Amino acid sequence: MEFGILFFFLFIGIAALVVAVKTIRIVPQSTVLLIERLGRFNRVAASGLNVLIPFLDKSRGVYWSSVRPGLTSIDLREQFLDLPPQPVITRDNVTIHVDSVVYWQITDPIKAVYEVNDLVGGLVQLTITGMRAVMGEMDLDHTLSSRDQINGKLRVILDEATDKWGVKVTRVDVKNITPPEDVRLTMEKQMTAERNRRALVLQAEGDKQAAITRAEGEKQAAVTRAEGEKQSAILQAEGAAQARLRNAEAESEAISQVARVILDHGNPAQYLITQRYIESLKEMSRGQNSKVIFMPVETSAMLSSIGAIKEMLSDTSERRGRDDENPSPPRPRQLPNG
Fold it and tell me: Whole-prediction pTM value?
C-alpha cells in the first residue's frame, strides 16, 4: 500500500515536471522561437521567459543544410557561408575554380521558415548560379582584376532573390580565383614580358629626359657664353670710343693753343680757318655719331705748316731769351774814309 502511494506521488511529480518543461521556455538573446498551436503558426517567442500551453503549443523546428536537424531556435545574428571552390567558365572559355564567402542575416524569421524549405541550401545554390552568371560575362583577365565589381553584382543578385525569404545579404567576398596550371604558366610568362617591356620603356624615358636636360644645359651655357662675349664686345667698343674721344679732345686742345699762337704772331685769315676746324673737332668729340667735315684744300696746307710755324716761334723765343741773358757788346762804329 505504501509502495502504491509512493509510486502515485512519483508519477504526479514527473507529470508536473514534464508540464513545466513544456510550459516554460527561456529564449536566449538574439534568438526567437516560432510557436505553433495545433500545427498552425501562433506567435513569435522573443528572448526571455515565455509560457506555452502544454500539449497545445510547441516550437517549430527547422531542417536546414549544415544545421542540426530539428533545431527550434532561430539565430537573428549575422552569419556566413563559406562555399567550397566551384568551377566557373569565363567568356573566353577558361575553366577556373572560385571560392567565396557570403554574409547574411535573418530579418523575418517567419518568412525564413515558412517561405523556403532549406534556407541555407537555397543561399548556397543562389550564390553558385549567380557567380557563374556574373563571371561568365567576363574574360579571364577581367575576372582577376575586377573582384570588387564581381562582389557588388553578386550581392545585388542574392539580396534581390532572398528578400522574399526574409534574409538580408550584407556582403559577398570572392576569396580565391584559381586558373588551370597551363594558363597560370602562360600568364606568368606574359607578366614577365610585360615587366621587361615596362623596364625598357622606363629606361628609354630616362635616357630621353637625360638627353633633354643635357641639351638644355648646353643651350643655357651657350646663351650665357654669348651674353658674356656680347658684354665684352660692348665694353671694348665703349672703351675704344672713350679713347677716341679723349684723343680728339687732346688734339683739339693742342690745335687751339697753336691757333692762339698764330693769332698773336701770324695771319688773321689763317686763324679764322683754324678756329673753324677746331670747333668742328669739338663737335665731333661731343657727338655720338661720326661726322665728316669737308674743309678747303688750303686748310690742309695751312695745318701742315702749323707744326713748322710752332717750331719757328719756339726757336725765336729761345733765341730772344738767350740774347736777353747774354747781351753782345756793341760793335765799333767805322768812320768813313776821308
Answer: 0.55
Contact 144, 177 (CB under 8 A): yes
Is 36 in the same domain as 109?
no
Q: What are the strands, taking DSSP E only, across the chain?
A: 24-27, 31-37, 40-45, 48-51, 57-59, 74-75, 79-82, 86-89, 95-106, 167-178
d(CA 137, CA 154): 13
Report which of 291, 255, 294, 289 is spatially closest to residue 275, judged by C-alpha positions. Answer: 255
DSSP one-letter code for 93? S
Task: Count the domains in the chain.
Answer: 3
Residue 132: which CATH number?
A: 3.30.479.30
Q: How far apart are CA 304 and CA 270, in angstroms?
A: 12
d(CA 76, CA 30): 5
Give yes or no: residues 157 and 248 share one domain. Answer: no
Going from the C-alpha of 186 to that of each of 91, 92, 182, 199, the distances in angstroms are: 18, 15, 6, 20
| Rounded Cα distance, 224 and 238, in Å | 21
For the chain, the C-alpha Rg in angstroms (whole number) is: 63
Within this chain, do residues 50 and 87 fall inside the same structural domain, yes or no? no
In a shared domain, residues 165 and 258? no
For residue 154, give its domain range: 76-179
Domain assignment of residue 325, yes or no = no
Q: What is the pLDDT of residues 212-224, one digit of tens each?
A: 999 999 999 899 8
pLDDT value at position 53?
85
- pLDDT tens for 234-292 read 988 888 888 888 887 887 777 777 667 666 655 555 555 666 666 665 565 555 544 44
